[in-house]
Amino acid sequence: MAATSLQSYTLVITGAPYSSQAPQTALLFARAALAAGHTLDRIFLYGDGVHLASALSAPPSDETHWPVEWAKFLTENAIPGFACIASALRRGLVNDAEQKRYELPASNLLEPFIIAGLGEWVEGTMASSRVIYFHAGG
Q1: Catalytic status, residue 96
Q2: pLDDT, tens digit, for every residue of 37-69?
Q3: Within a 10 A sphere around the Cβ of 133, how many other Cβ atoms?
Q4: Distance (Å, whole) CA 131 – CA 46
Q5: pLDDT, tens digit, for every residue of 13-25?
Q6: Distance of CA 60 to CAs 24, 42, 56, 82, 134, Å?
Q7: For the sheet containing 130-134, what is the strand order?
Q8: Of 26, 84, 110, 131, which one is the catalytic site residue?
Q9: pLDDT digit string (tens) for 66-91?
Q10: The whole model's pTM is what?
Q11: Among residues 65, 48, 56, 55, which one has the least CA distance to residue 12?
């Protein structure tokens, strides 16, 4: 039997929760990867995927709260989660610094997510042995 080589992954999520399966599929993959002994270097949210980092999401009580599920997963496993700043600003997602910068009435970034530039994506492509994209499809 051949030995399994352990990998490190950066996951890029571009599909929004509740309108695509991308965040759900990515979370299943992430859990399975960790269970198999692989590592996750970072999660990067891009495009509509940044909705996963919104603290203002409030799904019905009989549905899974994907932003909270992801926040718990990241916190429990000490994995950094980044939301692309350009995608976030276009979609009304801001942290405290951007709220002040643009003089907005509130911030709505869900912890432990961090707003960051594409440099975090680039670093992930260089640091990880694999980068996997989870798109909205269609």
Answers
A1: no
A2: 999 999 999 999 999 999 999 999 999 999 999
A3: 15
A4: 14
A5: 999 999 999 999 9
A6: 17, 29, 13, 26, 24
A7: 114-116, 81-84, 39-45, 8-13, 130-134
A8: 84
A9: 999 999 999 999 999 999 999 999 99
A10: 0.94
A11: 48
DSSP line for 6-68: P-EEEEEE-SPBTTBSHHHHHHHHHHHHHHTT-EEEEEEE-GGGGGGGBTT----TTS--HHH
CA separation for the pair 25, 112 (Å, rounded): 20
Domain map (residue ranges) of the chain = 9-134
The CATH code of domain 9-134 reads: 3.40.1260.10
Terminal-residue alpha carbon distance, the chain: 39
Residue keyed to tokens 């276009």: 90
